[in-house]
Amino acid sequence: MIKSAIIVEDEVAIANLLKIHLTDAGFEADVFHDAETAFLNLQKKNYDLCLVDWMLPGIQGIDFLKRVRNQNQNIKMMMVTAKADAESIVQGLEAGADDYLPKPFDARVLTARVRNLMRRHQFDKQAPASVDQVTIDAMTIHFTKHFVKYNGADIHLTPSEFKLLASLFKAQGQVLTREKLIDLIQGEDVSVTGRTIDTHVFALRKKMGAWSAHIETIRGVGYRVLMSTEDISEANSDGDM
User: Fold this and answer.
1) Of the options 1.25.40.10, 3.20.20.70, 2.60.40.10, 1.10.10.10, the CATH number for the domain spanning 133-236
2) Which residues contact 208 (CB under 8 A, 6 or more apart)?
3) Which of 57, 77, 129, 231 could cross-link 226 (Cys pair, CB 3.0–4.6 Å)?
């Protein structure tokens, strides 16, 4: 089945380039040059993927993203924008973007990011509404029984480390900012800061050995779990974040 994408980009040359890359990747892509028109079209047609610029005429891309996300939790959304500072990336992710690609971008990186989003999209559709156990490349976490196993062997984590890992697994490859992770891990008897998150990730990596390559650092922003060895290879060749 052909996947569908919507591109919201006011620069015609960039919009056409994005459409070419998505078409080559197997998408049927529609292009809109302003957010309002694109939003109206989203009410009429279901899309699997949305690429949206930040700087748009009228409604800005970040506000478009929030409006779409308030109505549709299923569509995968990627911001493709020249706003490449960490603060903007955090703002975009917190607004509901599944990924964030700064301009100028490499076509291979764009395609790799899109493939990753679509793998997560397929997982979302196939997974039961309530999942107690998830396995990613031989690492298994059981959310209600609170255990973690790698190739069948127990990995002993502190409560905070478990919460952190569980949050990353549940995000299914989506970047979680340090601020979001703080909200998820903070407890009645636990005080968490951005530096604490980094310390927990360091400890997790030491306990996980080779599997630690699945935990990717997004510089200045946060962390995500890479869903496959293919994702690890792509991340190692992607130096933009």
Assistant:
1) 1.10.10.10
2) 139, 150, 155, 215
3) 231
Residue pLDDT, tens place only, 133-171: 888 889 999 998 999 999 999 999 988 899 999 999 988
**72-121 pLDDT, tens per residue?**
888 999 999 999 898 999 899 988 898 999 999 999 889 988 987 887 65
- Residue in 133, 165, 136, 149 with CA at minimum distance from that of residue 226: 136
Cis peptide before 57 (omega within 30 of 0): no
Taking the CA atoms of residue 231, residue 219, residue 105 and residue 52 in that order, the dihedral angle to the nearest 10 degrees is 90
Are residues 63 and 38 in contact, defined by beta-carbon separation less than 8 angstroms? Answer: no
CA–CA gap between residue 179 and residue 218 (Å, rounded): 13
Q: What superfamily would CATH give domain 3-126?
A: Response regulator (3.40.50.2300)
The two most distant CA atoms of the chain are separated, in Å, by: 55
